[in-house]
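About this split. The held-out portion is used to measure sequence recovery: a designer receives only the structure tokens and must propose an amino acid at every position. Recovery is the fraction of positions where the proposal matches the reference. Here is one held-out target exactly as it appears in the evaluation file.
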């Protein structure tokens, strides 16, 4: 792989890739974080942590010398949290057909 193509792959992982993965991780975090006393902690905490997640992905893509490790970490996060979100939306129970009184 040429240096030019490695540079563009790194830019894609640091730029739009980091943003997309941070948003998917935020959506997935709402599913595995426990609810707090008010029942909204699992929704608020991911919203607050999105900039930190984005920054971690951005700096990892910029500073890690091994591009394969950058891709591996990013893709594992994307697949795991994307799978959680997909499972949540695809796990629909059939509507009840009981008559209303």
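Reference sequence for scoring:
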């Amino acid at each position: 792989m040429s240096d030019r193509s490695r540079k563009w792959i790194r830019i894609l992982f640091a730029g739009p890739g980091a943003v997309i993965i941070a948003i998917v991780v935020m959506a997935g975090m709402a599913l595995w974080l426990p609810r707090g006393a008010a029942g909204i902690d699992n929704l608020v905490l991911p919203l607050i942590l999105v900039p930190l997640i984005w920054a971690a992905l951005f700096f990892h893509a910029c500073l890690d010398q091994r591009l394969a490790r950058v891709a591996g970490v990013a893709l594992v996060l994307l697949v795991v949290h994307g799978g959680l979100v997909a499972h949540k939306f695809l796990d629909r129970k059939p509507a009840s057909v009981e008559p209303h009184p």
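Annotator remark: The mean pLDDT is 89.
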